[in-house]
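Worked example 3 (structure in, sequence out).
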């Protein structure tokens, strides 16, 4: 039935030959529809820390699905199914409302942090997104510049004309745009100049070699300088070791994110850390680098 509905209604013949993998996908799709309708998805928040003051100035919202039998699922486990089922628009709208409502609550509680939101390129090619975000800003009465929309290089370049129109519309609202996973894709420096991007997030594959690989350090150093030259704020992702944090501080890096500063966590846990100094508090935590591997 769901397979038929997905295809816009009509008849699908039940095929006993459906492979176990296909059946599993169908079940997951059904579960996802139910989870979306019954509000069973959740957002985790990972701290973004200002190096100079070692305080949390923002969080990245990351979607999680506590599945009744499969455990806590990360986006790579279900975004493909969501895309096939035509659910990306609904999913992104849910993420936006949830994140902005959380932002409003935090500001109301006196925590003036920024929130970074990941959207799929499906939404970033839809000019309606501008009005939807504008409405949410009004409804929840939050400052537009506390909202950061993260886009990947791939998204930015895939349909550059439309995406650029959407991004410029968001910029006019005062919303900031971050280029995620920077350095892993195809964004040329020319593209970078033409996109309304204010923040660069250096992919964690670069920070991995800090402290051990001179080549990686040279690349990070160069990218930090590039950011500075273009007046962009740079966030280095994937900081897991104190030695990496110390190196980045010496290199003049402004913002860092990674397991050393905090894993993605439920909002109540994140709020406890606001106003504290997570770097010094997690330094002795042997557990920090033992996370699950995933691709945002
Ligand atoms: O692509 P994007 O930057 O949005 O991906 C963020 C993802 O990276 C999150 O799902 C998060 O769990 C993961 N992540 C965050 N910090 C670290 C880290 O220090 N090390 C590793 N390996 N993954 C991380
Ligand atoms: Mn991201």
């Amino acid at each position: 039935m769901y397979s038929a509905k997905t295809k816009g209604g009509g008849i699908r013949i039940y095929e006993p030959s459906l492979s176990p993998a296909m059946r599993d996908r169908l079940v997951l799709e059904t579960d996802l529809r139910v989870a979306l309708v019954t509000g069973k998805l959740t957002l985790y928040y990972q701290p973004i820390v200002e190096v100079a003051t070692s305080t949390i100035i923002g969080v990245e919202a990351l979607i999680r699905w506590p599945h009744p039998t499969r455990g806590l699922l990360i986006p790579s486990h279900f975004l493909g199914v969501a895309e096939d089922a035509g659910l990306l628009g609904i999913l992104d709208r849910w993420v936006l409302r949830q994140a902005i409502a959380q932002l409003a609550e935090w500001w109301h509680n006196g925590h003036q942090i920024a929130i970074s939101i990941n959207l799929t390129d499906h939404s970033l090619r839809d000019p309606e997104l501008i009005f939807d975000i504008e409405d949410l800003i009004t409804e929840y009465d939050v400052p537009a510049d506390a909202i950061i929309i993260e886009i990947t290089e791939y998204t930015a370049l895939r349909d550059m004309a439309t995406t650029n129109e959407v991004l410029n519309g968001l910029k006019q609202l005062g919303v900031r745009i971050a280029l995620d996973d920077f350095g892993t894709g195809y964004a040329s420096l020319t593209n970078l100049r033409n996109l309304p991007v204010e923040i660069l997030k250096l992919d964690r594959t670069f920070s991995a070699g800090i402290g051990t690989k001179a080549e990686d350090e040279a690349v990070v150093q160069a990218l930090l300088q590039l950011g500075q030259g273009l007046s962009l704020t740079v966030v280095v992702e994937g900081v897991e070791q104190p030695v990496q944090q110390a190196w980045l501080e010496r290199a003049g890096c402004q913002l860092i994110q990674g397991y050393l500063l905090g894993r993605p966590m439920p909002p109540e846990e994140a709020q406890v850390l606001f106003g504290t100094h997570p770097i010094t508090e997690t330094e002795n935590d042997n557990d920090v680098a033992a996370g699950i591997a995933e691709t945002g």
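Notes: Strands lie at 42-50, 55-67, 71-73, 114-118, 147-152, 176-182, 199-202, 233-236, 255-257. The chain has one domain: 35-295.
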